[in-house]
Amino acid sequence: MPPGFPPSGVMTLSDVIQRHELASFLRAHREATDPVSVGLPRGPRRRTPGLRREELAQLSGVSVTWYTWLEQAREIGVSRQVIEALARALRLGRDDRDMLFTLAGLALPTAAPEPPQVNDALRRLVQTMQPNPAYVTNVWWDVLACNDMYAELLGGYDERPVAERNILWLTFTQKRSWNLFVDWEAEARQLVGQFRINLAQHPQDPRGGELRDVLIGASPRFAELWREQQARRFEPARKQLRHDRLGVLHLDYVKLDVAEQNDLAMLVFLPADEETAEKLGSRFIPYGGVHELDAG
Asked: Are strands 237-243 and 264-271 parallel, antiparallel or unpaired?
């Protein structure tokens, strides 16, 4: 629906509140924008800070009347193109741009994929998990950081090319990984199912499609599982792994998403029994040893 036309339907209290939030957000960012920073002359002394309404309207390609109505929280429709233009004119960063789209009731713009970055605090956290195996991965199961015990489980991690430091690649193409999991078939199915979901959720990242195509060509079993069209979400699970030196380990597999980078996660294997903890040189902490909120 073009801007300037009232939308059809009944307004709810939530809609009214959101329109006022949108109006306040735009007004605050307009007043905080230096006219010189957007290419306007400094001119005579201004009575109001930042951009005037007519200046922002001109920069965004909309009428002054329509923009004024928007800041007055009137019941008018907003289009994706206009919100994009306002975001550009106001030089909004990614977080503020996302907030503008949210307040306008529009789906967030698709962001270009960025190279994954593991910050120092996250690296230290992974190493703190030692001797429990732990690693950081992205949605394509690239191993971005890991501690010594996880590297020992994989075998030859440091000598591998960066392109091969990938859980899917190792699971389906390396004989060592075929023996790592006692129930390799269940692990393989779970990985492929999660990969399928991630591929659907991140279609703008070419890494996913490229990895899928490489795996289909390199592993007949991956190709068979991919054709089954099964999707699986991550679930905490108890796994049995074979360690060359320590034997069979019983481990609880836990995933922790990284809040500031929602495409990264840290995964940790915790000893599931005292025998495994002793083999790892770790501690077995039974259930019930944690302070919890009393649901009752």
From this structure: unpaired
